[in-house]
Amino acid sequence: NRVSETIGVITQHIRANELGPGDRLPSENSLSRELNVSRSVIREAFRSLAAMRLINLSVGKRATVAQLDHGAMSLMIE
Length: 78
What we know:
Blueprint: H1 2-16, H2 28-35, H3 39-51, E1 55-56, E2 64-65, H4 70-77
Antiparallel strand pairs: 1-2
Helix pairs in contact: 1-3, 2-3
C-alpha cells in the first residue's frame, strides 16, 4: 500500500543521506511532490515512523530523525 511504500522510501532517504539524530527530514509538501502521493499519505507514514521511534514529530516543525534505540535500528536494517 502507498503508506508502506512511503515509509520505505523515507527510511531509505534517512540511510542514503546518512541522517543522524536531530537531522531534519524534507517537508510534507516536498515529499508529497517528490513521491507523487498526497500529504495525508506522508502524514500517515510520518505517524507510523514516529510510533516506531524512528523520527520525532512536533507541531509546526519539520520531522527529525530520532535517537535510535536497538529495537528501532533492527527494524530499519530489515
